Amino acid sequence: MYAALANQKNHMAVYLMAVYAAADTRDLFLERYRQTGKRLDMGKSCVRFRRIDDLPVELIGETVAAMDVQTFIQTYELARS
User: Fold this and answer.
1) CB under 8 Å to 19, separation ≥6 — which residues?
2) DSSP 42
3) Using CA atoms, how far apart are residues 53 and 25, in angstroms rounded to an integer?
4) pTM, to two decimals
5) What is the pLDDT of residues 27-57, one digit of tens each?
6) Strand partners, 15
7) How many domains does the chain have?
8) Which band of pLDDT confidence, cut at 50, 70 and 90, is reported for residue 10?
9) At what angle do helices 23-36 and 57-66 cross, to 10 degrees?
10) Is 66 left (phi over 0), alpha (psi -120 to 50) or beta?
């Protein structure tokens, strides 16, 4: 899984496995998220939100596009070995 959406009872979440797998990607994502001024409610890979307006959609799109699939697979395989 590279990215996913989930709908829970009290919130929705977007799961960004590239953020989970790569510390440098995570650090950049956290820094840029804080710059948006929106409240961050995040686990290791999930960003929880109640309304779509609570989410910096453009940043989510940029984060998903930042790591190509081949790099993600290599990162995943390296973590599994």
Assistant:
1) 25, 26, 29, 45, 63
2) B
3) 23
4) 0.85
5) 999 999 999 999 999 999 999 999 999 999 9
6) 4, 46
7) 1
8) very high
9) 160
10) alpha
What is the spatial distance between Cα 36 and Cα 31, in angstroms, rounded to a whole number?
Answer: 9
Q: What length does the chain have?
A: 81
Strands 12-16 and 3-7: antiparallel
Structure-block tokens of residue 68: 């190509």
Hey, CA dihedral for 35, 53, 16, 46, is it positive or negative? Answer: positive
| ∠ CA 23-29-34, rounded to 5° | 130
- Is it the case that residue 12 has pLDDT exceeding 90? yes
- Residue range of the domain that includes 36: 3-80
Q: What are phi and psi of 48, to 5 degrees?
A: -90, 145
